[in-house]
Amino acid sequence: MNIDEFVAVSGKAEIFRLASSRTNGLLLEDIDTGKTKFYPVRKHQFTPLGSVSIYTLEDTEPLKDVFLKMYSKGSELPVPAYNADKMVLLEYFENILPDYDEDKVYASDIKKVIKWFTFLNDRGLIDTKDSSSEEE
Known about the structure:
This protein is about 35% helix and about 25% strand. The protein has helices spanning about 65-70, 85-95, 105-120, 130-135, and strands at about 5-10, 15-20, 25-30, 35-40, 45-50, 55, 60. The longest helix is centred in the last third of the chain and has 16 residues, at about 105-120.
């Protein structure tokens, strides 16, 4: 699975696909409509999903691996809504990543991970076949 091309933008609820970068901002493609729009760095902060990792007790776990665990356990452990009760989110995330660092990973971080996963999964962009070919 390649999440390097996806970017979260501050103030926007959805995830975008990176079309091009400029010195003063990013040209991002809306996944649903396919339209591109320029987002300036003076107004927005950008989070490339490929650079996100979750703190664990030993090291960190890349977001891609967390997404794959969420996807593989989806049939036995349904993903809660990102705005569910804090305890529900913490319990779910503990089942997905039991060794996450509770001191460094906050409920707001878990909400973002669930929101991003749900957004990408609803659009069929979580692809497990890419990851198995990368490992070979």
